[in-house]
Amino acid sequence: MIILPPTKHGFRQTDAYGSGHYGASRTRATAGVQWAGQSYAHKGTDWICVPGEYAFCPCLADVTHIGWAYPKVSTSDPEFGSIHFESVEHPEYQFKLFYVRFTLEGTFPIRVAAGEAFGICQDLRLRYPGPPPISPHVHLEARLRGTLIDPVSLLAEAA
């Protein structure tokens, strides 16, 4: 299984909010919630984006549904999208792409070609303004038969 990057700008490096690599340490920051302050491992890989630019489908895929990256706490919260899809040629691989507004229309599942634009990158600085602000990025998670794996291991350069 080989995938393409979802943006044209490379990996998110370390910024004030952490590192974008798979397995990087994270701490839940949601104040007043039972899991606030808990540490966990980053479940995907982040790719730098320019808000408003297109995000691209990493493989020939069927988009199974779209949703939200975060629950809405108030009506003023920005809505950050998520796109859920699975490989057509290797259906044992499933993916989620966060912080992208899906732009295609149709009835799910929607078939998307590898490298096809299928969403608009959103501006995470609206949620994490800093100072300094978070680096705008999209987040890609990959699963093999339901188990999280590092998406970078599926890139053509890694093969």
Task: Give the overall pLDDT as a whole number.
Answer: 90
CATH structural fold name: Glucose Permease (Domain IIA)
Largest sheet: 7 strands, antiparallel
Give the helix level as a range of percent. Answer: under 10%
**CATH architecture heading:** Distorted Sandwich
Query: Which CATH class is shown?
Result: Mainly Beta
How large is the count of helical segments?
0
The percentage of residues in β strands lies in: 35-45%
Class of secondary structure makeup: mainly beta
Order of helices and strands: EEEEEEEEEEEE
> In the CATH hierarchy, what is the superfamily?
Glucose Permease (Domain IIA)
DSSP summary, beta strand count: 12
Question: Span from first to last CA?
Answer: 9 Å
Rg from C-alpha positions?
15 Å
Low-confidence stretches: none
Overall spatial form:
globular
Task: Give an overview in words.
The strands form 3 sheets. Strands 3, 5, 6, 7, 9, 11 and 12 form a 7-stranded antiparallel β-sheet that branches. A 3-stranded antiparallel β-sheet has the order 4-10-8, with no helix packed on it. Strands 1-2 form a two-stranded antiparallel ribbon. The protein has a single domain, classed as Distorted Sandwich (Glucose Permease (Domain IIA)). The termini are close together. The chain is built from no helices and 12 strands. It has 159 residues and is mainly beta. It is globular, with a radius of gyration of 15 Å. The relative contact order is 0.26. It has strands at residues 25-27, 39-41, 45-48, 54-56, 61-68, 81-87, 93-98, 100-102, 110-112, 117-121, 137-144, 147-149.
